[in-house]
Structure formats: C-alpha cells, structure tokens
Design goal:
The protein has two domains: about 60-325, Beta-galactosidase, Chain A, domain 5 (Distorted Sandwich), CATH 2.70.98.90; about 355-575, no CATH class. The chain contains 13 helices and 20 strands. It has helices at about 5-20, 20-30, 65-70, 235-240, 315-325, 340-360, 360-405, 410-420, 430-450, 490-505, 515-530, 535-560, 565-575, and strands at about 75-80, 80-85, 90-100, 110-115, 125-135, 145, 150, 155-160, 165-175, 180-190, 195-205, 220-225, 230, 245-250, 255-260, 260-265, 275-280, 285-290, 295, 300-315. The strands form two sheets. Strands 1, 2, 3, 4, 5, 7, 11, 14, 17, 18 and 19 form an eleven-stranded mixed beta sheet that branches. Helix 10 runs parallel beside helix 12. The longest helix has about 45 residues, at about 360-405. It is elongated.
Length: about 575
C-alpha cells in the first residue's frame, strides 16, 4: 500500500468533508460573515386573550420605532449590560439594547438592538399574563400602574392592575447585572367567587433570523423539554404548523428564539409542569409560549408564580453559570456546539484563558497552535518513523508485487507478513491528519458560534477574527468600490496559506507517480481559494500550523535522512546495494 497515496487521499477527503466547494459550503458550512445585528419583520401581534386568537396588524399600521416608543407610558431599564424600557401598556418588555455590543466595528456604531415594540419594524418582545374562567385578565391594551421609576439590578419594579371584580394583578420584575429577568406574577382574589386561572409567558417575534440555519449552526426556535435539547425546530416548520403550532409538555425546561449570537428564552420554574410550544400567528410572525398549571383561587386568597426571561448575548461562561447556579436545564446548549462539543468547549476554554493572559485572541490562536502541535509531536515522530520504514521496505514490496501480481489474496498476506516482520504501519502516515481533523473542525465551530470571538482584532488590518480577511486582491485592497464574490475574495491570509502549504509540500518526498505529483502541486492553490471566505482566525491557525510543520519536517529529516530521497531513487539505491 502506497503510504504517500493514502496521505494525499486523506488531505483531499478532509478538504471535501470540512469545506467542500462554494455551492455546498453555504448550506453545510456557512462561512464567516459580518455579525448579524437585526431581525427581519414588520407586523404587529397581540397577546392571547380568552376567546381571541393572536393577530397581526396590517403593514400600513407600522410606525417608526421612536414614534411607537413615545405613544405609551414606560419604565426605564438600566443595568451594566442593558438599556431600554418596559411598556406599561400590556406590561411588556419590548425595548432593549445591549450596551456592550455594537452593530459594526465603526466607532459611532449604535449598540445591538434586541427587542422592539409591537407596531414598529422588526417587532420583538416578551409579555406575561393570566388567562382563565371567571377572571377578567389584563390584555395587551391594559395600562398598568408602576411602583418605581427605573428597573435596575438593585431596584425591581412592581406593575399593578385591578379589575372591576376585585381581582388584583401584580407583576414584579427584577433583573440581574447581566441578561436575566425574574418575573413574579401574583393574582389576589378579593371578589365573592372563586376564579380559575393559569399564568403564561410569551416571546413574540416578527420575521426570521438573518443568520443562516444549517446542520452545523442552528438558528430560530429552540428549547429544552424534559432535559432534551430540541434543534429540529425551524421557522419553516412553524409556518407549516400555523396557529395550531408545535406543543411540548415538559417539567421545567426553557424555550425561545436563538440567533447566532443572541437569545431570548422563557424559563419556567424547573419543578413546575408547563405546556410549552411555538406557533405562527401570521406569515413570518412567530411566538414562543409557555403556560403553567391552572390554579383555583378562592375569595380572599391569592396565588403567585415565578419564571425567568433571558434576553441577551450567548456568552459561554454566563450560560454555564445560569445552568449551574439557577438550575436552568442545559442552558449551555443554547450555543449550537454540535457533535464535537466535548472537544470544542475545552478548545474554547484554552483560548479564553490564554486570551485573558495575553489580551489578544489572534495571539491566543497562535499559542493554541503551538500547544496542539506540541501535543502531536510524538505522533509526528511516529509518522516519520513509519514513512522511513516504508521507504526502507519498498524494494521488498516491489518484489512481492512482481512475484504475486496474479494473486491478490496471496499478495495481501505476504505484505501483511512483511509489515509485521519489519515493524512498519502503512496507515501511520495518515494519523496526524486524522487527529487534526476534529481539532480543526472544533476551532471552526468555536470561531463561528462563540460571541467572545466576535469583533476581536488581531493586528493591522485584521479587526475581526470571526470574519473573513477584509483585504482582497481583486478590489486592490479596498481601493476599488466593489466586493468580490466569496469564492474570489482572495486576501492576504489566503495567499499566505497557499504559500505555506506549497513550502510544506516542497519539503515532502517527491511522489513516484506523475499523477500524485500533479495533485500535490495543485493542492495548495486549490485550498487557498477554498479557504479564502472563512474566518480570519481559522486561517491564522492553519498558516501557523503549516510553518510549524515546515520547521518540524526540517528537524525530522535530519533524524531520518532516507526521507529526503525520492521514492524511486531510494528503491534504486537499495537495490544496487543488494
């Protein structure tokens, strides 16, 4: 078995599996793009009421956000990470921006807007209430009375409303220093008869996510029900289900809508039975709804239920902390780590720890590359030892091939016997490549899904490691006013990748067959174009790895001089010595 052919085949298959061509990568491996900052939409919807279905306003009813915000009384929200307001009409959290994240890299870029009020473009909000029999519950147009003037981590606010039957509704809203709201709903019955009611919470959203959803990166409706994460939901499936929706009976859990970096999620009490689900109330208008158990409240009695609402960035450490400290089941799965989660999270942890030491994620990626290559050095030594052994026994292999060329079964037996006698492994040369595939893919996912990498600079022109190289040869590095298509967006990093691969392959022993030589000659430049649209951080990892491999090969060639001799020449030399 030709070890060199196996190595080339592994490289080609790795490239196809990991990246594919442009036509397939958009679906299966979405490349890095400028971070999404908005959510599409533009139709109003209202909270569910007894006897009425949620509906959407016509497009002509949509007003500018500033106009809508000024139409109703509001309570300000001000935390270290959030700013916005609570709408006293309907008691909705419908105005929220993320202070610490900007839409673009520009200095004057506005912060990320996550929530917008109903009636404005891209409406996206959360609401909480009651439904039931014998109870006049507040609706979307109810004006609540507020106790407090501003919601902060140290000052919760209470919203109150009393109907004509003597039933008082209180909604106490608190928020921590990050992105988690705690909502306590109270219903006190001062009337003459008992009432049956059940609390609910919902997240309503107009439009689908601008972030592509694929088998490597899920966006859209998401939830955990009965300790099982559900990534099978999609906006398309909600459109098909309509108002009937998709329902889940669960104990605890959570549900909401996830984008690449942002998340809204309703989190009921972990020990409570809830009826949860998703529905589409109109084309491209969606809701995530959860309702608790019905409660019977007699005269002079009251009932209270507490749930949480997350609205913010999917920060890895924060989601992990909410999962452990607040008991939110599998909250870390809001990030679509995928199949290699067991590798991706440790790689992210290493990157994050190194970043905290050096202050630059690009430098952290380079240090990670050194660590990975250092751990793989014993494997590389074994690879070279095996390849040298294969070169040594190649004349004997040729002799066996000539002797048993008419009997393949016998040839295989003799070859296996030869490998055992000479203590060589023809597949060992592929081992470093096979080991690196999950590491490389894990880094790809880390760069794609973790917000900690978003807008992280390296040096000079590389201001966002999670986005492609912004300097392209075809537009003369930005001097020409056009953006090349992704498959032609050849930048400096892609060129460095191609050159480093070419130098690495030049150090490899020359293959015997002309076809293999042609493949090795073309591979660096093919990979240069394939990798050009991917995240800059991924290319930095590969370039660094290539140069480390070049240095490693130079050292190992001194340990195994036979590897520097072309295969054909080695065969002739050994034969003559015989």
């Amino acid at each position: 078995m030709d070890n060199q052919r196996n190595m080339i085949l592994a490289i080609v298959l790795s490239a196809i599996v990991l990246f594919g061509w442009q036509a397939l990568s958009d679906r299966f491996f979405p490349v890095a793009k400028p971070p999404v900052t908005k959510i599409e939409g533009g139709k109003e919807q209202v909270l569910p009421q007894p006897g009425a279905d949620p509906a959407a306003d016509s497009p002509v009813a949509i007003r500018a956000r500033g106009v809508v915000l000024g139409e109703t009384p509001r309570i300000a929200i001000d935390t270290p990470k959030l700013a916005g307001s609570i709408n006293l009409q309907g008691a909705r959290i419908d105005d929220l921006v993320l202070k610490t994240y900007k839409e673009t890299l520009a200095k004057d870029s506005p912060p990320i807007r996550l929530l917008s009020p109903s009636g404005s473009p891209e409406a996206y909000y959360a609401g909480f209430g009651w439904t039931g029999d014998g109870v006049d519950a507040p609706g979307p147009n109810t004006i609540w009375t507020a106790m407090g003037t501003k919601l902060t981590p140290s000052t919760p606010v209470t919203l109150s409303w009393t109907n004509q039957r003597g039933q008082r509704f209180d909604t106490v809203i608190a928020v921590d220093a990050d992105y988690m709201f705690t909502v306590t709903q109270k219903l006190a019955n001062s009337g003459v008869g008992a009432v049956a009611a059940r609390p609910y919470g919902l997240v309503a959203r107009d439009g689908v996510s601008k972030d592509p959803s694929s088998w490597t990166l899920h966006t859209g409706p998401i939830g955990v029900f009965n300790d099982t994460a559900n990534y099978d939901l999609s906006f398309e499936k909600l459109d098909e289900a309509g108002q009937a929706g998709t329902r889940f009976a669960s104990t605890g859990g959570w549900l909401g809508f996830g984008d690449k970096y942002w998340l809204t999620a309703l989190v009921p009490d972990s020990k409570s039975a809830v009826d949860a689900g998703f529905l589409s109330t109109a084309p491209k208008v969606y809701q995530a709804v959860q309702t608790g158990k019905p409660v019977l409240i007699g005269p002079g009695k009251s009932s209270a239920v507490t749930q949480r609402f997350f609205a913010g960035a999917k920060e890895v450490a924060l989601l992990d902390r909410y999962e452990t400290e607040l008991g939110v089941p599998m909250f870390s799965r809001a990030i679509d780590w995928g199949w290699f989660r067991v590798i991706e999270k440790p790689i992210f942890w290493v990157l994050d720890q190194v970043f905290k030491l050096v202050g630059n994620f690009g430098v952290a990626i380079i240090i990670l590359t050194f660590l990975v290559r250092g751990l793989m050095f014993p494997i590389a030594q074994k690879q070279f030892r095996s390849m040298a052994g294969m070169r040594r026994v190649q004349p004997k292999m040729k002799e066996l091939q000539e002797r048993h060329k008419g009997d393949k079964a016998k040839l295989q037996q003799e070859l296996l016997k030869l490998y055992q006698e000479e203590k060589v492994n023809p597949l060992a040369g592929c081992l470093p490549i096979l080991v690196q595939i999950p590491v490389f893919y894990a880094l790809y996912k880390v760069l794609m899904v973790t917000i900690e990498m978003r807008h992280q600079p390296f040096i000079l022109w590389i201001r966002d490691l999670s986005a492609p190289d912004p300097l392209h040869f075809l537009n003369l590095f930005g001097l020409l006013d056009f953006t090349p298509p992704a498959f032609l967006g050849l930048g400096i990093l892609a060129l460095l990748l191609g050159v480093s691969m070419w130098l690495q392959f030049r150090l490899n022993p020359t293959p015997m067959e002309p076809a293999q030589q042609q493949v090795m000659a073309l591979m660096p430049w093919i990979m240069m174009f394939i990798m050009a649209p991917f995240a800059a951080g991924l290319l930095i990892y590969w370039i660094t790895s290539n140069f480390l491999t070049i240095a490693q090969q130079a050292w190992l060639y001194r340990q195994y001089p036979v590897m520097e001799i072309p295969a054909s020449a080695a065969t002739v030399t050994v034969t003559k010595k015989k």
